[in-house]
Amino acid sequence: MSEATVGVGPWTGRARAWTTVAPAVFAAAWGGNHFTPLMLMYRQHDGYTTMAVDVVFAAYVAGLVPGFLLSGALSDRYGRKRVMVPAVVLGIAASAALATGVHTLPLMCLGRLLSGLSVAAAMVVGTSWLRELSQAPFEPGADDGTGAARASVTLTLGFGVGAGVSGALAQWAPEPSVLPYVVHVLLSLWALAALVAAPETRRFDADIRSLLADLRVPAASRRRFLLVLTPLAPWVFAGAALAYAVLPALLHRASHGADVAVAAVLALVTLGTGALVQVGLRRLPPGRRRHAPHVGMGAMAVGAALCARAAVAPTLWLAAVAAVVLGLGYGICMVTGLVEVQRLTDEEHLAGLTGVYYSLTYLGFTLPVVLAWLQPVGGYPVLLTAVAVLAVVCGTVVAVARRTIPVPVWPDESAAPWLERVSAR
After folding, report:
1. In sequence order, which residues have a C-beta less than 8 Å from that of residue 406 and are 6 or more positions away?
2. Of 26, 146, 218, 299, which sits most exposed with the smallest number of CB within 10 A?
3. Residue 229 has what DSSP assignment?
4. Hey, is 272 helix, strand or coil?
């Protein structure tokens, strides 16, 4: 561990140390994504125009960006718990604002802004914290990459289960604009209670170095970061957005009035598949794991092609298949991207660079907006076919860069790979 890491002995709690942090990551992810299936409800039943819903979504992104860029660097300097606890509290405040402000657009925007800050901080800090708690001295003997896998699966489950439960409540339960947020608040209170016992892994550092310095990609990694992570990262949430933002709109006639429930099920299928594939990746022999990014980008291309077909002949079964394929791509690209980040930096700047990576992944959520803007030009079948071609191009760039640009070697081997232990390229 780095000099900034707390010099503690082996974890002596009754549970594994990482289980004290995972509930907070799960709850934050739940709060970030459970709004997605509710967007249809706000349009259909609460009088919101498409433009108003897009404004609320934009407020979420406005919270994500500073959260991604600042929370990791702050936690590297001041400690994981000092950032994670406020992140969970912000999530509670966000749900309270959304539950009480259903007919007040500024309050809805405030709620989503706070939600974006909460999710970003939990993703960046939680990923780094779970990684640190999944290695010695907290868990001696854990495989390399165990922490990245745990963080990715926890986030994915939170995103998926949150959307599924909230969508079901919005479709069939009473008080659909309030009850989903109450459930999230209760979940977050449980997560806060678990965080009390979480061990800190960073010393307080009062160094007044520039925060921007914590976000820089190490010089030895810049070419690989640019040509491997930059073309791969946006597809993480671009694929997810195709599955549970674009597909439900295409299925309006096939949904038979259950649009919100269909959107929730597609989100659950996509992210549930993503969680399963992330667990399954670690069971593969190392020689096969090194091909995972290529398989992930290939799944993105096939999934986009299936969406193009659904735009021509929308059916629920075709949408389900597309959601499964896109979920495979989502899961593989998410975890392989996180592992790549760990290989491209040292412990001192891990959380900061993780924030940069997550910022790139969320660029994928702009894809539905871009498609809607371009729809009058070519129509969804043509546009989604173009997306499939673009995925192939990006996958080719990633494959060539991974083969030709070496991974930097760190003196402390803190970024040792688990996904490609056999070959650095």
Report:
1. 224, 424, 425
2. 218
3. I
4. helix
